[in-house]
Amino acid sequence: MPAFAAGAVNLASARLGATAVFSTDEFFAPLSRMLADEPPLWDPDLYDDNGKWMDGWESRRKRVEGHDHAVIRLAMAGRIQGFDVDTHWFTGNYPPFAAIEAAFSPDGDPDPNDDAQWTELVAKSPLGPSAHHFYENADKTRVWTHLRLHIYPDGGVARLRVYGTAAFDWSKVGADQEIDLAYIFHGAKSLAWSDAHYGHPDKMLEPGRGKNMGDGWETKRRRGPGHDWAIIRLGHAGVIRKVTVDTHFYKGNFPDTCELLGAYLPDLGDTLTPEEIAASENWTPILTRKKLAMDHVHDFAGSDVEPIGPVTHVRFAMHPDGGVMRLRLLGVKA
User: Fold this and answer.
1) Cβ distance 288 to 233 under 8 Å?
2) What pLDDT score does 200 carry?
3) Phi, psi for 214 (deg, rounded to 5)
4) Whole-angstrom Cα distance, residue 238 to residue 18?
5) What pLDDT does 243 receive?
6) Which helix (H) or strand (E) holds 282?
7) Domains along the sequence of the chain with CATH
8) What's the pTM?
9) Do residues 323 and 216 lie in contact, with contact meaning Cβ atoms separated by under 8 Å?
């Protein structure tokens, strides 16, 4: 992955709420498939009424002047680090070129055909067959809510990944207002982890309680010593007052115990060295090891949560392994 993806969230994630708004043409494959979180699939024998089934967005062969374009609403307003235009499995039907524009329209979808509403982020650039195409965004400070993807003149894109950070306005949060410091829409992100065989630890930071056992962080069965862990950058430095560990859907595979450590490291980068990861084992305990139960919301507060002061990062550990659906760290900003 390119450096700009480190510590970033996919703002075009369908799982997080990114939405297909408009496309000039989606004859062979709908725009919504381009936003799927899973890697694109290939089935050589799968066809539908319009032809070959493709896992992405694909327009028909254009027989008139012009080109195809599409609009997506990002999962959250955010600052964009860069893009991945992925043409995997599109070999004779990929677009030769693509361009990307953005708009800030928090109160509704912008006009897909009004050029005045759009700002160019990626100029018309060449694409190739069945490959990732990474483009870094020059201006990482502006906030956007929508993207307009142009393909020239037609063809298919398997996935569009938009790497960035949530643009949550922390100035509107009161000094004594309790808020989830580990919520992905508030800017939290998993930076390192021991294992993510069945589910990424970022899933613990997502909305709701999860829809099934595949919607949380789950590691493979540990056959040796040690335990599983994830290091999380909070959305804002803060003091944690309540820890919620939800093992919803995890019944034969929930962790036996869990613990939470924290540190105030405002200058820690988004790519951690082995030495920095090892040092996290000695961070200050916020929640000492607590017994967990299957399919249950565990709320720890009061004397269970150590008053260690402001932290910017936490290390959440599961002993020895297993799955956690959601992790909520309620506290006040520092």
Assistant:
1) no
2) 97
3) -85, 5
4) 28
5) 98
6) none
7) 3-166 (2.60.120.260), 175-333 (2.60.120.260)
8) 0.94
9) yes
